[in-house]
């Protein structure tokens, strides 16, 4: 079967750096995505990694190691508005367009 | 550009009533997904369409749930009869084909069945 594991909650301080990890088990792999969801809001796309290495988009970076079935989302210069849930997701081996979702990591930022 | 549009934003109804949720995908997107989100079960895929054709409905919880996509710009998710355990946030998402393409979500419908 397919599964993803990520911590349920992470706490960090405003201005700091935080890393949210995701490990996956899938029978095939087509890329790791990250989505952000604020309370009461909709998931919004953050990043996608198909190959090993680091992808940087402003304060957010995402890393993938296919040999370790592992990825992480790195958030720098944390702001209070970054308080949200973060989901990792992989494309289903049965369908390139269907996503299998992690349970989400709630990021709590303290001033 | 207009995003994915869902209606209603909130729905409160009594058990046994029929509920219809609506979704307008982003123009040009040929994939449409219906999700349900609860605290207990997280984000669950119910069904998805490609070019208006249902591809996988294995996530539909039971035959009380049905979904249609009569054309490229409209889809409905219907629950009949509704039950309190159907209370959740229902999201619609759309995307274009292509392995690197993200899913774009609507604002969701918060459904409460009393």
Gist of the model:
The complex is a heterodimer of chains A (111) and B (114). Chain A is mainly beta and 111 residues long.
Note down, in words, how this protein is organized.
The complex is a heterodimer of chains A (111) and B (114). Chain A is mainly β. Chain A contains no helices and eleven strands. In chain B, a hairpin with a 2-residue loop joins strand 7 and strand 8 (74-79). Chain B has strands at residues 5-7, 10-13, 19-24, 31-38, 42-50, 53-56, 65-71, 74-79, 88-95, 104-105, 109-113. Chain B is an all-beta fold and 114 residues long.
Can you tag this structure with a few keywords?
heterodimer, A: 111 residues, mainly beta, 6-stranded mixed beta sheet, 5-stranded antiparallel beta sheet, 0% helix, globular, B: 114 residues, 4-stranded antiparallel beta sheet, 54% strand
> Helix-strand pattern of chain B, N to C?
EEEEEEEEEEE
Count of separate DSSP helical elements of chain A: 0
Number of strands of chain A: 11
Low-confidence stretches of chain A: none
Between the first and last Cα atoms of chain A, what is the distance in angstroms? Answer: 41 Å
Low-confidence stretches of chain B: none
The quaternary state of the protein chains shown equals: heterodimer
Q: Write down the Rg of chain B.
A: 13 Å
Total strands of chain B = 11
Secondary structure class of chain A reads mainly beta
Distance between the termini of chain B: 36 Å
Please bin the fraction of helical residues of chain B.
Answer: under 10%
Major sheet of chain A, described briefly?
A: 6 strands, mixed
- Give the rounded overall mean pLDDT of chain B: 95
Amount of beta strand of chain B: over 45%
- Please report the two chains with the greatest interface, counting residues with C-beta closer than 8 angstroms to the partner's C-beta: A-B, 21 and 22 residues
What general form of chain A does the structure show? globular
């Amino acid at each position: 079967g397919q599964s993803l594991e990520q911590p349920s909650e992470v706490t960090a301080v405003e201005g700091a750096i935080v890393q949210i990890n995701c490990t996956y088990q899938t029978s095939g792999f087509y890329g790791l995505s990250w989505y952000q969801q604020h309370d009461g809001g909709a998931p919004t796309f953050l990043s996608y990694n198909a190959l090993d290495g680091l992808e940087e988009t402003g304060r957010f970076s995402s890393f993938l190691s296919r040999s370790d079935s592992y990825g992480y989302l790195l958030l720098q210069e944390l702001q209070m508005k970054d308080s949200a849930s973060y989901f990792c997701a992989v494309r289903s081996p049965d369908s390139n367009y269907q996503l299998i979702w992690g349970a989400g990591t709630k990021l709590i930022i303290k001033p | 550009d207009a995003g994915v549009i869902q209606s209603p934003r909130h729905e409160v109804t009594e058990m046994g009533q029929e509920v219809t949720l609506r979704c307008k995908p982003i123009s040009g997107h040929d994939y449409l997904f219906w999700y349900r989100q609860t605290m207990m079960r997280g984000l669950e895929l119910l069904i998805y369409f490609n070019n208006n054709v249902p591809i996988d409905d294995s996530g539909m919880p039971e035959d009380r749930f049905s979904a249609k996509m009569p054309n490229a710009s409209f889809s409905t998710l219907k629950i009949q009869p509704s039950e309190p355990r159907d209370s959740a946030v229902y999201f619609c998402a759309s995307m274009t084909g292509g392995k690197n393409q993200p899913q774009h979500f609507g604002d969701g419908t918060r459904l409460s069945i009393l």
